[in-house]
Specification:
single chain, 99 residues, alpha+beta, four-stranded antiparallel sheet
Amino acid sequence: MAKLVHAEDIIIAPILTEETWAKMEENKYAFRVALGANKIEVKKAIEELFKVKVEKVWTANMKGKPRRERLNQLHGRTSRWRKAIVRLAAGDRIDVMGG
C-alpha cells in the first residue's frame, strides 16, 4: 500500500450522526479515514489539520454492507472503510461544520 504523506490524504471526512454529536460533549470526534492509516498517522493528521492536542485514538475497520437484494440475488456491496474516534485534550475543540 502507498505511504500516506499528507494529512489531507489520511482524514477523509467527519462523521456526523446523532451518536457522534452526543460524543462531542465528551470531547470525542469521529472521522472517516484512509484504509491504510494507523493510529499514529491519524493523531498527527488531526493535530496538523485542526491545531489541537489529541489524547487518544480508537480505530475500527467497517465492513461493506450488501447493497441490494432482490429475489435472492445479491447486487454488490458498499465499500469497506475505516473509522477513527479521537479524544482531544481538555479545552480543545474542532468546528466540524467548517464555518
